[in-house]
């Protein structure tokens, strides 16, 4: 039985790119189920793509093949890799975009994709998603063994994802993703907040550049009034700055990559 192929790209929906990839996959393996993770990754943004893949992969059925095409180095000497993890297969450029997800699930084998018999006949230098990634995923979905892809490799490139710095003075972190609602996800998880004594119901001092906010730390949006900002732990398990029924990124002037400092708010009487 053919497997699920899940696709993540920065192609958008305006052009023919996504449809072409799906057409190639279905022509080779008509029985496959294709799922779109997203095609609205910010252009060329490897970190955002890595975060989206990390947040979504574990909810797919075992055996799913993930195809990730956020590939600013397309047509150059960068490798295309296929990674077998404990439960899944991931195909993408070796630029770090797969790293968070494959390391999370546990890497078992890495192959450099180089068997041209599995590619389309005429390969464009600028569209490896259609001409290489898509047919390789389709052949794997219909039963081709990964050993036919090419030679094994011992490592992959990691994505640069900064870690928060936790001290007695608070936490230094970074905004790593802004979703379509304007919620700003950070690289700070709940354990880091707990390390400096922050728990639900507390208020948090947040510095973003020269701006300063005092935000309640709540379980979800509805714990504050409409239009009010807050901090919460999002569904990917990291601290997120949000506004109930509003766009935090616009209202609080939050940008991708912005450095943030936070600590527990203690009002002095």
Structure description:
With 269 residues, this protein is an alpha+beta fold. The protein folds into 2 domains: 4-153, Rossmann fold (3-Layer(aba) Sandwich); 165-264, Elongation Factor Tu (Ef-tu), domain 3, CATH 2.40.30.90. Helices cover 20% and strands 31% of the residues. It is built from 6 helices and 15 strands. It has helices spanning 17-28, 46-56, 99-105, 128-141, 190-195, 248-251, and strands at residues 4-9, 33-38, 65-69, 80-85, 89-93, 107-112, 152-153, 165-167, 170-178, 184-189, 203-208, 211-216, 229-233, 238-243, 259-264. Strands 8, 9, 10, 11, 12, 13, 14 and 15 form an 8-stranded antiparallel beta sheet that branches. Strands 2-1-3-5-4-6-7 form a 7-stranded mixed beta sheet.
How much helical structure, as a percent, in the residues?
10-25%
What is the mean pLDDT? 95
- Structural class estimated from helices and strands: alpha+beta
What would you call the shape?
Answer: elongated
How many strands, what sense, and barrel or not for the largest sheet? 8 strands, antiparallel
Which CATH class of the largest domain applies here? Alpha Beta
How many domains is the backbone divided into?
2
State which percent range the strand residues make up: 25-35%
Features:
269 residues; alpha+beta; Rossmann fold; Elongation Factor Tu (Ef-tu), domain 3; eight-stranded antiparallel sheet; 6 helices; 20% helix
How is the secondary structure organized here?
Layout: E1 4-9, H1 17-28, E2 33-38, H2 46-56, E3 65-69, E4 80-85, E5 89-93, H3 99-105, E6 107-112, H4 128-141, E7 152-153, E8 165-167, E9 170-178, E10 184-189, H5 190-195, E11 203-208, E12 211-216, E13 229-233, E14 238-243, H6 248-251, E15 259-264
Helix pairs in contact: 1-4, 2-3
């Amino acid at each position: 039985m053919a497997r699920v192929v899940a696709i993540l790209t920065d192609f958008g929906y305006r052009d023919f790119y996504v449809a072409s990839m799906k057409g190639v996959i279905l022509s080779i393996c008509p029985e496959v189920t294709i799922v779109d993770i997203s095609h609205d990754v910010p252009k060329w943004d490897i970190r955002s793509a890595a975060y989206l893949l990390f947040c979504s992969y574990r909810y797919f059925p075992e055996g799913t093949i993930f195809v990730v095409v956020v590939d600013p180095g397309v047509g150059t000497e960068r490798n295309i890799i296929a990674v077998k993890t404990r439960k899944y297969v991931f195909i993408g450029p070796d630029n770090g975009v797969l790293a968070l997800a494959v390391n999370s699930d546990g890497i078992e084998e890495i192959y450099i994709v180089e068997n041209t018999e599995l590619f389309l006949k005429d390969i464009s230098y600028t569209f490896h998603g259609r001409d290489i990634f898509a047919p390789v995923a389709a052949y794997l979905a219909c039963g081709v063994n990964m050993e036919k892809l090419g030679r094994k490799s011992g490592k992959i490139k990691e994505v640069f994802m900064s870690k928060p710095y936790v001290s007695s003075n608070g936490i230094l972190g970074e905004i790593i993703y802004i979703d379509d609602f304007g919620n700003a996800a950070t690289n700070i998880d709940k354990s880091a907040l707990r390390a400096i004594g922050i728990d639900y119901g507390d208020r948090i001092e947040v510095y973003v550049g020269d701006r300063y906010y005092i935000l309640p730390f709540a379980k979800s949006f509805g714990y504050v009034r409409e239009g009010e900002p807050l901090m919460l732990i999002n569904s990917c398990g990291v601290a997120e700055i949000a506004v109930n029924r509003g766009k935090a990124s616009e209202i609080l002037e939050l940008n991708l990559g912005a450095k943030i400092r936070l600590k527990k708010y203690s009002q002095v009487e």
